[in-house]
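Researcher: Here's a chain I'd like modeled. Treat it as a single chain, no partners, no ligands.
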Amino acid sequence: MDSKKRSSTKAEGSKERGLVHVWPAGSCSVTPERLPGWGERTVLQAALGVKHGVLLTEDGAVYSFGTLPWRSAPAETCPSSPILEHALAGQCVVTVAAGSFHSGAVTESGVVYMWGENSAGQCAVANQQWVPEPSAVSIADSETSPSLAVRILQLACGEEHTLALSISREIWAWGTGCQLGLMTTTFPVTKPQKVEHLAGRVVLQVACGASHSLALVQCPPSQKPVPERCNQCSQLLMTMTDKEDHVIISDSHCCPLGVTLAESQAENQASTAISPSTETRDSQGEVFENTHVQHDPAVANKLNVGNVQTTSGDAVPPQLDIIGTTETSSARNIPLDPDAPAGNEHVQKLSDPSKRENSENGEKPVPSQPLVEEAVPNLHSPPTTSTSALNSLVVSCASAVGVRVAATYEAGALSLKKVMNFYSTAPCEPGAQAGSSSIGPEGLKDSREEQVKQESMQGKKSSSLVDIREEESEGGSRRLSLPGLLSQVSPRLLRKAARVKTRTVVLTPTYSGEADALLPSLRTELGYISRVAAGRDSYLALVDKNIMGYIASLHELAATERRFYAKLSDIKSQILRPLLSLENLGTASTVQLLQEVASRFSKLCYLIGQHGASLSSFLQGVKEARSLVILKHASLFLDSYTEYCTAITHFLVMGGFQLLAKPAIDFLNKNQELLQDLSEVTDENIQLIEILNTLFFLPTRRLHNYAEVLLKLATCFEVTSPEYQKLQDSSSCYECLALHLGRKRKEAEYTLGFWKTFPGKMTDSLRKPERRLLCESSNRALSLQHAGRFSVNWFILFNDALVHAQFSTHHVFPLATIWAEPLSEEAGGVNGLKITTPEEQFTLISSTPQEKTKWLRAISQAVDQALRGASDHPPYGGGSSIQRQEPPISRSAKYTFYKDPRLKDATYDGRWFSGKPHGRGVLKWPDGKMYSGTFRNGLEDGYGEYRIPNKALSKEDHYVGHWKEGKMCGQGVYSYASGEVFEGCFQDNMRHGHGLLRSGKLTSSSPSMFIGQWVMDKKSGYGVFDDITRGEKYMGMWQDDVCQGNGVVVTQFGLYYEGNFHLNKMMGNGVLLSEDDTIYEGEFSDDWTLNGKGTLTMPNGDYIEGYFSGEWGSGIKITGTYFKPSLYESDKDKPKVFRKLGNLAVPADEKWKAVFDECWHQLGCESPGQGEVWKAWENIAVALTANRRQHRDSPEILSRSQTQTLESLEFIPQHVGAFSVEKYDDIKKYLIKACDTPLHPLGRLVETLVAVYRMTYVGVGANRRLLQEAVKEIKSYLKRIFQLVRFLFPELPEEGSTIPLSTPLPTERKSFCTGKSDSRSESPEPGYMVTSSGLLLPVLLPRLYPPLFMLYALENDREEDVYWECVLRLNKQPDIALLGFLGVQRKFWPVTLSILGETKKVLPTTKDACFASAVECLQQISTTFTPSDKLKVIQQTFEEISQGVLASLQEDFLWSMDDLFPVFLYVVLRARIRNLGSEVHLIEDLMDPYLQHGEQGIMFTTLKACYYQIQREKLN
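Model: Modeled as a single isolated chain. Structure tokens:
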């Protein structure tokens, strides 16, 4: 259709669709005319009553026309044009229905509206003769609480009753008469009631005659067809008794809920077909095949020239029952149209068979039975209704509710212009001849039984053209009656009915001259009829005009799809199913392949059946191209055809057709004609197997038809329209797939031919269903370079592998791991191809350059296709259609090694590069070993995880870390099956470098732990060993896994050993220091046993010199001299040996050398300070990037702040020009960030140092004798880290240098204690002088503070106890008393205090109020870490004291130390700092030396003096 016309305000396409034509009933030759007064609106559905009709338009509006006596306005009772039902405005109506004198409509929300005559309650309104406007009907289910409104799907109207089918598949009825199926004798029923006799059954559709009702019911899957005769008494289950005025049907043997409509062959032969017969594929009159078939698609039925043509063999899976009720008498008799006898007479002349031919589609003539048959002799059996009539109702009802049945008329490319109507009477008595009886006056009494019924398709705004025959007697009116009618009005099963009088709407093809001559017709060119409705006085047809062939193309698609489905159904039921039922079909694999073919065929068949049904519905709707299923769900069709073709080509390649030849020969011979007919093969010389082959490939031809029809539809639109583009693209897709599947078939046939010539033994191992031959070298066009003279090398290229066959052996190279490249002429291979596989590399020599090109192209394309993994899909859509020139060198693939000794039988799955694993991958060995990580050039390289099963312990070794050239190298964590865990450095699969080893079953409570240096898998160098079981910790040198060299041992009992160790034993000179300060200095031997010359010093200073032997704590033998120096010397200093502690320990700078060496190596330096700065920064950038990528793959997610820190570290600080304080601060900030993340080399260094420090000085290591070692270790850290920082920042001045100020100080300030001015140059602040402690302690010390401060607290425990006792005693005094006791001058005593803004006088009882701000300030010393921060707190405290004194003196003054000291002493006492001694000693040990003589140094000295003064206060 032209899109310009469609895009206009009133699109021509819409004008020319759904046109309403009407004509009177009973005339032989009439011209249908447009409905008077009706505009160009598209009508989707129409329904006719006796003298009125209802139209449903495209936009959901409802119009009424004809005689409307219920309308209130006189002008509307007989309107000249259809009038809009305004009451339904705004309601989206989806279906309409018309009874004899009333109408109904159902909205999208499931609400029913009724209007018209209501004398019998058929509009569900009480006590009202007429319902002038559509009125909503309240249908509520009282069985639910609260009662819920019922949504309605479909409506059916009779003369005095109405039926509604709900969304839950239940029937609701109202009106008058037993045809309601309700258990009541009280009429009218104005409130809708549920038909209880069908409760629990799935009702698919309902239909109403004037005085009877029909229901299409789905049988339960388990219900079996009811036999014709009872199994016990062998009597007929249903009997009919012919009375004078009625027929009685007895079904006493039948369940009141109905039985399955499944007719056997015997039934069909015994039955009498009275209506126009139905021609079926199997036998005349059969409705459904009496077989349960699961997952079968719909049955496509064709109504052609008055006959319903069905395809048997595919029964509807849910069996269907037709259940009906009939009224006994007529409430109203209306005369028949006077023109009717003329039609009857004309029809009676039609007694000869006629052949009808579709000239446009080239259909074969379909033989038609006489419209009125002669009675067959056997009439003694109960007469039956025509199966075609029943089937028509069944299939029309079923298609309406989505059951898999397609009941449509044969359309195709027909131009349906001939519409005829006729009457015929059927014989009802034995011996009666066709056409011999005429209709008497009594036959005109009731025209309601002569209406042409059109079943509405609920919810789809569409209908199927079917013919329903109603019962009429020979000479007058007859009614079907049920026994005990008034007492039993439930729905009953109608299995047999007779005396059919037929009025049929016949659709004929164009140019059917014979049909034109035989049948009365309407000689007007109408177009394509989508729906037909019949009333008593008139008929109505909805017509679509065929603009630009659009409608014709749609009908062609629908008709060919139905015919295609019919053929598929025949193939499945008559060929495929019998084949599968044969015995001895071959091997299990062959049978499985055939079953796969059958499965895919059934799926395709089901899809086509569904599509045919949807097209029938589509043709009765709006008919928008974009709504076509083959456009909206093209992928479903493409995939289904592809899957089927894949299955059938697999079957072909495995020689399935040849294997079928023997077991199926009898079946094929018997059905040769059927095979040729279905496969459309005319050559009789072709073998049956070849015909079968052709038959199974037949479905793929349908794709060309789809492409052609879509292309035809596309030409109806403008080229620029989206519809054209969509149709054009879809047409291309279907055509591409058709060509692709054709190529697949040729490949399969080529492969099959190859297997027939290939040696049998190798065929068994190489032949696979999915394997296709691409090319092979049997013509000796390809040979192996340097092959033996008599060797045979046969190369076969399949779509998944390259096979190298030699005599009786062969090797398969998977295509995904083949790299092919041409040899250059310089290499001496003019026609050579270099083939690289993971374990082999060989050269193929072709006979000609053309052969070389051919093989190179074939291998490259095959490899590329194998890598894409979509060989069964055509190259349509997306970028996948672009064929690459050559496959990528880097790729992902899976491979199992067979030759490499290290990797034999191991499977690798991951990235490859030129024949080598390269990138991320997983390598698995048969014995359970597995490596998952990165590879480089075929070896494990980078970060990876390695698991090794330990069968003895039923556990596994597990390594996670870095690799290099196939070996563990770098940082990693190795968890042993024994329970040990090693975290540290590896080299060549051995522990080498710094590492931590935890030993024990549970790592959380390991009995021992070692942290230190490893060399070639052994402890060597400095390390700390914590033997938790013995409660000992060794800190010293190691060699070959034993203690060797200087070392220190501390025990949980407080013993301290220091000396030289040999083979894990302390030997030679050493020092032993006990908890009570007893010291032994001398010779040791064999496991710390005193043995030799030495000196034993007591805690009080006495000492013994001589020879000692024995073990400490278990008695020592002494030979020597006892000295008591305290008697002769006044000096009571500690023994000199205390000052000698550490002399035999490992020097601080020798500790943890491996940790620092590792950091230097990371920066690219072989030794400390030896390397390029730019390279170091480059290595830092690489480390950050690699660690970030590694973290991205790990389950741990970096926080946002960590991510921002890493991003900021990617910028290298650049310094140009003279070094300044700002640049110094930049370096300081960079170091803080770098040390915050272990991903940075410096951060990792700091993290490791913190770990080893805590490992050393926590637990047993928390020994006060180790304090000086701990302090020395921190100073060593500072020195060595500072060396690293100066290497990275060469412009940073050396230790102790002064940074020049960028701007001079604005003012000079007075010295705190003296009157002279104090300049920064003489007493610089910490930030202005470059020191390692000033730069690095803020980073390092907070992390090391807990173990360090613990050592200080242990060391100063005794004197701090004295200090604290004095603090508690002195703090008992009030402020005034304490100030007086400490000697503070009275002028410095505060007189008044400001507390919360309120001034209060200082009283003698006031406590903890004077100098409160200074006290609070000093207390912060315990919350800081670095000496510089603690000194700032002290300085701030002094300033707070000065501020307080200034406030009371109201004048400027200078402090003298004599005045200041008592006041500061008061503040220190009131601050109550518990571990002040530890704070003082920490500051003293770690503060910068240049601060000692400055202002802060003086203030610190004052604090220190206060500390000692407080201790002496106790003596006063």
